[in-house]
Amino acid sequence: MSGLEIRELEAFLVLADELHFGRAGERLYVSQSRVSQLLRSLEGRIGAPLVERTSRRAELTPLGEKFLAELRPAYGALRAAVDHARATARGAGGVLRIGFQGVIDDHLARAIAAFEKRNPGCVVELTEIPLADPFGALHRREVDAAVVLLPAEEQDLVLGPTFSRQPQMLAVSPRHPFADKEVVTAEELADVPLIGIHGPAPAYWRRAQAPDTTPGGRRIPRGPTAGTLQEGMGLAAAGRGGMLLCRSTAEHQGQRGSVVFVPVTGLPESVLGVVWHAEHGVGRARTFAQEIVAEG
Fold this sequence. Notes:
D-Maltodextrin-Binding Protein, domain 2; LysR_subst-bd; DNA-binding transcriptional regulator, LysR family; 4-stranded mixed β-sheet
């Protein structure tokens, strides 16, 4: 442990989420070369490679996978201890760590503001959750509550209020035949490969975001998979398939001229839910959930 740097561990954890040095650097607010430097330093301390580097992606070695599984809970516990100490030092009512996927819409922003107003002694910290890992931060105790796309069927997690029901949109290349349509029906999805999501997200959750069949039972072709929203948008722009996403995320991405967003009819609406772990962070998570309901 001599000389071990916490920044090296953080770089490894983020790289394990993104599997891409450039995106890991963006999340850490450092250059791609700095991420590589931190990883090399960590691998030097351990004495073996943790990541296999390719020209486009990074993959964990077997040792890297094992190290990741052991490091995540330890790092989560360390962060929780630091947060608790900070709250105690401030004489405050603690810290509420909220994870979120995609964008913070108006409903969520109002709920956060209302919580802070009603609980002035509690510090709210916001953390973006990777698209491909909606529940990992909760399992690792890195956040107290998470606002995620449903469904959420994890046995050790509690699903609180749901909100932000929105029609789904299909992101396609401007060159795709659907790009000129005013609307696409769910049955027409059988004519376009859907870009899926890879990563630690449960299979049922990934199928919900990129279904295998239309409501009428027609098979939907499988397209390539993405680990992040940006990667999915890139695949759609390249004409590799279409990607389903909620309207608010589509509107947030609307400035991207390389992708066209077309409304889809006949699919269930996308729904956000507030989720928390059944064994920790329960009190503040429930208090925040009440604000979500009040702002509904």
